[in-house]
User: Fold this.
Amino acid sequence: MKQLGPPVVAALIGLLLWELLARGLHVEPWLLPPPSTVARAAFAARAELLGATLTTGTTAFLGFSLSAVVGVSLGVVLSRSRLLERGFYPYALLLQTVPIVAIAPLLVLWFGIGPRAVTASAFIVSVFPVVTGTLSGLRSVDPALHDLFTLYGSSRTRRLLWLELPSAAFSIATGLRVASGLAVIGAVVGEFVAGFAEGRPGLGIVVMSSYRQLRTDVLFGAVFCSTLLGLALFSFVGVFSHLYLRKWHVAEKDPR
Amino acid sequence: MIELTGVRRSFADGVVLDGLDLRVDAGEFVSLVGPSGCGKSTLLRLVAGLDRADGGEVVVAREEGLAYVFQDAHLLPWRTVEGNVALPLELAGERDVSPRVGAALTAVELAGVGHKYPAELSGGMRMRASIARALVKKPRLLLMDEPFAALDELTRQRLDERLRTLFLEQGLTVVFVTHSIAEATFLSTRVVVLSSRPARIVHDAPVDLPAERNAVTRGTPAFARVTADLVAALEEGEA
Ligand SMILES: Nc1ncnc2c1ncn2[C@@H]1O[C@H](COP(=O)(O)OP(=O)(O)OP(=O)(O)O)[C@@H](O)[C@H]1O
Ligand SMILES: [Mg+2]
Assistant:
């Protein structure tokens, strides 16, 4: 709890400065509304924002889960052979450099407007760090432990399950943490292009529509919600990896 | 137990072993000493079957059971001590392992800490867990590559005494690499001194000390004589 103190104080100071500057300099509210206005607007639009957070949260979570499963599996497959890795890794890298905004229309063509295209967008943006995390983790197993498994005639499956995957756990968890934040970004950006405006629209739609209506206060509210969403997904991964790693991993052991 | 004839092994940076002959019989405790980088680990890995010779013959009675102990404990950090000691049995698909795991832990005086994780142990305890793991399948041949090099002197002497007892009790054959002449003298029935790379045998002699050895042994004149001979041989090999 003690670590929470400094950032909370920093946030309060920042909000106070923002409030004073916005009011003192008479900044147009559609340019930069003071935090109090944002809070009031967000509270008034709470039903809309909550629904949007749930909608985006669902697709982000689905995209992230897909990334976790596909990313780890792909990492395992690529680690089985140098040749495979050399052949496919550059394309996995390409996946990371492709701007998601540019291929979002393609996703609409393939999946239609709606949660499927948004989930695909969240997946594409977040899968790469999971692949790299898995691959580098599997590649950096202690060679003496490999020798040990060789000496005792281990099968390939046991070597993977009992040695390589646990060795890679920390590295995989790091990849998943990065992926969790990216999945939310991918979902919001995906919604810009492929989100449903009817029913219960996601945060990306709320951002776009409040921008068109110059409701900057609601826009800030939506930004705040997507930040919270990213944090929630990040903590979700953090809790699970901590539960697995805390007993034995040096970096995860509770201090003192 | 081990019969090496004309063994050759080279790496990209040159020849490490160039026609080495070495024979180790059952029941021997042979220590290998020699300058750093002369090829001791290479030799041990060839005997273990972890590496292939480029030429010559390596005959090892591996079917009687062989275990390898590394310089550091190299335990699986995500397994408890018990889990680590059980690993060789589990990899062989054996069931009902806990009595044997318990016996191996008792043999290295670690009976109380089986449920702990390696990160919770001291370096000496981790090394003992590593030895328990090596002993759990009751191997006849034990290969050890500077196992106690990272430990403080007192811990090291205690583990040497423990190992000497295990050697006598369990009828092991041991090949032990070390940089410490005193340790080689204390443990071995025979010490082999290697020259710098490519390794030649410059000295190969039995250690003329009683079988039962303890802390007192290190202070006897016979002990001092054996170590002095070994130092002389080592200096000759480095020249
Ligand atoms: N896998 C390898 N690839 C390339 N070179 C190697 C490899 N293993 C050993 N060597 C080289 O062979 C030489 C002998 O190495 P080795 O580890 O057998 O020496 P050592 O006698 O065990 O030394 P130390 O006492 O420092 O442990 C070294 O020069 C090393 O660089
Ligand atoms: Mg060595």
About this structure: Chain A touches chain B through 21 residues (CB under 8 Å).
